[in-house]
Amino acid sequence: MSQNVPPKVSTSAEASTGAGEGSGTVASSKLAAGLHIVATPIGNAADITLRALDTLRRADAIACEDTRVTAKLMAIHGIDRPLLAYHEHNAQRMRPVLIGRIQAGEAVALVSDAGTPLVSDPGYKLVRDLHEAGLPVHALPGPSAPLTALVLSGLPTDRFLFAGFLPSKGAARRTAIGELKGVGATLILFESAQRLPDTLADLALLLGGREAAVARELTKLYEEVRRGPLPELAAHYAGAGPPRGEVVLVIGPPAADEGEASAEDVDGLLREALERLSVRDAAADVAARTGRPRRAVYARALELARSPGPDRIGNPAETPLSQDRRARRKGRGDGRDD
């Protein structure tokens, strides 16, 4: 899909940019030394501020995640400045290089592939080191995918938590969701399109019928925001399959009566889980689903598994510890019995 090309923005001395204090004009003088954190479009190339364009044109160099991505945006806006790759794989080596250039009096612009740098994006260590070195850092606000999705979602905006990407593995993802369950705020998550159906299924399992929104292709031609309770969204994408494009999930806060699971609820879930899982795995599963501390849930699972009489869970010929040893060996490919 081609990017929308914005109308030409004047860079003459008469163009108002707000690059200095308050609203002013584009200066022909050298840009102030320091790091300039510049937000760039998340989809529509026209979504960039006048101040951002002026800063990018006057920077001594532009540090970016992917030089190919940034070069395309610079070409659209007629900007020709040196590009320096700065990403998580070379950050340790490049940080001293960028700091050295700023110490020498250069103005370095920092951009991400899309949106506001440092938001689910490398860069905070560079800012931290510059502060520690007493060097100037400037931020130029602009596009942000989490905030764009939030304001489109129709969900509460007075309190929200951006939690980035959930883990890709199912068990780790459910644990992370369990940790977020009790947060009394709207949740904002990034997710890959391919993992979206599985993630929504886990969210529906652990967070119940909370209202949510799936926002994709934000600011682009095929922008879509699908709203509904988590179980409905999970059912839709289970049938339709992964969507195309980049996805942001927005999930409403817990209802007032959505309190912590009771001890009876935990016992019921553990009894069900122990019928099919080892003690360790059952405890991990229930801890993720309830948000309870894993160590406490594991201790309770041991009690239930060891309980005598008709309430005993699992195979009476095995102890809970032998069940766990068997599960661990099976996971390593060791088929020996105890």
UniProtKB/TrEMBL annotation:
GO terms for molecular function: methyltransferase activity. It comes from Azospirillum oleiclasticum. NCBIfam families: 16S rRNA (cytidine(1402)-2'-O)-methyltransferase. Residues 1-23, 305-338 are annotated as: Disordered. It is an enzyme of class 2 (transferase). Residues 260-304 form the RsmI HTH domain. It comes from the Bacteria. Signal peptide: none annotated. Catalyzes the 2'-O-methylation of the ribose of cytidine 1402 (C1402) in 16S rRNA. Gene3D superfamilies: Cobalt-precorrin-4 Transmethylase, Domain 1 (3.40.1010.10), Methyltransferase, Cobalt-precorrin-4 Transmethylase, Domain 2 (3.30.950.10). Residues 9-23 have a biased composition (Low complexity). The lineage of its organism: Bacteria, Pseudomonadati, Pseudomonadota, Alphaproteobacteria, Rhodospirillales. Its EC number is 2.1.1.198. This is Ribosomal RNA small subunit methyltransferase I. The keyword Cytoplasm applies. Belongs to the methyltransferase superfamily. RsmI family. Residues 35-234 form the Tetrapyrrole methylase domain. It catalyses: cytidine(1402) in 16S rRNA + S-adenosyl-L-methionine = 2'-O-methylcytidine(1402) in 16S rRNA + S-adenosyl-L-homocysteine + H(+). CDD domains: RsmI. Keywords: Cytoplasm, Methyltransferase, rRNA processing, S-adenosyl-L-methionine, Transferase. Its main location: cytoplasm. One of its GO terms (biological process) is methylation. It is found in: Cytoplasm.
